[in-house]
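#structure-requests
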Amino acid sequence: MPDESSRNLIINHKFRSYVRPQIDKYRLKHNDPKTCPLCQKQYSEDEYVVDHKILFHSILDSFLKDNSINIRDINLNDHEEIKQDWIGYHSRHAKLRLICHSCNEHR
């Protein structure tokens, strides 16, 4: 049984993986070279990441709170209903943007 910190990291990773198709879809739709909204530098396709304007963990924390879910109660192996609810929640609440790697590292 993982300790609480490890368990939270596992859940965070799993919940990120569930919304990966949304992130990938955003990236494909907005893949032309842009200017980073944070530093104003131009970047090319290989120099950017899809970022959550509201930090990912904040969106996840809000989802858990809004649905009265205690992170300790999430089954690490079987939580299909929560997974589907999370995917919809993320789709409605996440505000995505493209930023350069450098700015992403400093967030």
